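Record type: monomer structure entry
Structure origin: computed from sequence
Chain ID: A
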Amino acid sequence: MVVTVTLNPLLERRFEYDIFHYGKSNRDSTEYLIAGGKGINVSRQLSLLNIQNTAFTFAGGMTGKLFKKLLSEENISASFVQIKDETRNGTSIVDKKSKVVTSLFGKNSDITPAEADEFLSRLERMIQNSEIVVLSGSSPSEVTDHIFPSALEICNKLDKISVLDTYGSHLQDCLDASPAIVHINREELKELYRITDEESILSQLDHLYSKGIKQVFITNGENPVYASNFDFHYKAAIPVIDTNDATGSGDAFTAGIVYGWHHNLTFEKTLNIASCLGIANAASYKICSSMLHEAVKYESEISIQPVGKKIKAINVNPQ
């Protein structure tokens, strides 16, 4: 069982226009609602990869009720801590002609200390019955900043595989808590460390490994992915594609990491699958909705090379 954890969920209303006229009235859009948040996106993609999972998050108010309904309609298994405040909402406008996506986000939900404590208590019980725990997305406030670091400590204590994909004020505390696997965007990593060139990236991979982090994946849009498996480094060249909407591509990549570990794939194969899913997501207007057979068509276009010392292609996933 995989548990995905989202502290800052989002009810998103998306408007898709063939041509969007800025500063004018626009009609005849394709409009739909989607339950979002990084961990929710990971769960959506994992479900399409036939990996059993449960999404754990906060929900509150009328927005929260609709959020729950949408997850149920997608057959995404989910568990919630009820909050007094409303679930966060947002709006995205997709201009298909220019391929520009404009997103508007409402304020974060106001989580009380009691609600945060209940969340962590229930999460500890869920971790006990899980194989892999995915901690994704931002923390809505200082009240919830301790949840991910505490969850990582619980995972390590119970010898569970943790996958971290987060950013913001709690990022350093999360990294210090030694997740097993980290997926991070290069810009997010630059918030903590000086990143200027390949040499500095490889140096940071070594630094993160010194913290007890076994695998690291650093993505950067269409640019190469840098990754480490223990102290072995890799560089994956990504093919240039006709991007439609990159929203959720990082979450699709994270789902690929989980897929690889769940199926005991080699590290290089996992990196390839994760990259394929991220690319397929960017080529689509749907968020984390790629089928595996659609994604793997990019497999042969991804070039993965070791950087530095080499390792034999054996199963070296964290145990």
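Annotation 1: The longest strand covers residues 10-17.
Annotation 2: The domain at 2-9+38-92+111-307 is CATH 3.40.1190.20 (UDP-N-acetylmuramoyl-L-alanine:D-glutamate ligase).
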